Amino acid sequence: MPDLVEPSIFTRIVRREIPATILAETERVIAFVDVAPKAPVHILVVPKTEQYANVVELAAGDPGLLAEVVELANQLAAEHSDGDFRLVFNTGAGAGQTVFHVHAHVLSGNLQEGSLASF
C-alpha cells in the first residue's frame, strides 16, 4: 500500500475544509490573510495545485502560473496598501519554509529596509 500524504493546510483551505479570510480567487490561484501576520498587510497567494513544493519548481514547471501568482500579489498590494510591497517565497526548511506547497507572502505597510530579516 503506498504512503498516503496528508494534504497541505493550503490544499485544505482551497477545498474549504479549513476556514480562511479569502481575499481573491481565480481558476488557478487563491489568496487569503495570513493567520500569523509578520507585517501590517500579510497575504498569502497560493496556486491551487499541490504539484509544486517551492517557487523554483513552479518556475520550471509552470511559469505562466508563477506569473499569475505575481499578478494577483500586485493586485492585492494595490487594493490593501499603497501598492508598495515585498513578495517573499521561502524555499526549503533552512530558509523558513514550513508548508511545502508553493506560496508567496505579500507583505506591506510601512516596512523598513532590513525589517523582517528573520522572516
TrEMBL record:
GO molecular-function term, one example from the UniProt record: catalytic activity
Positions of short motif Histidine triad motif: 101-105
Active site: 103
One Pfam entry name: HIT
Top-level lineage group: Bacteria
InterPro entries reported in the protein's UniProt record: Histidine_triad_HIT (IPR001310), HIT-like (IPR011146), HIT-like_sf (IPR036265)
Matches recorded under SUPFAM superfamilies: HIT-like
Taxonomic source organism: Subtercola boreus
All copies of domain HIT, residue ranges: 9-116
Protein name, entry field: Histidine triad nucleotide-binding protein
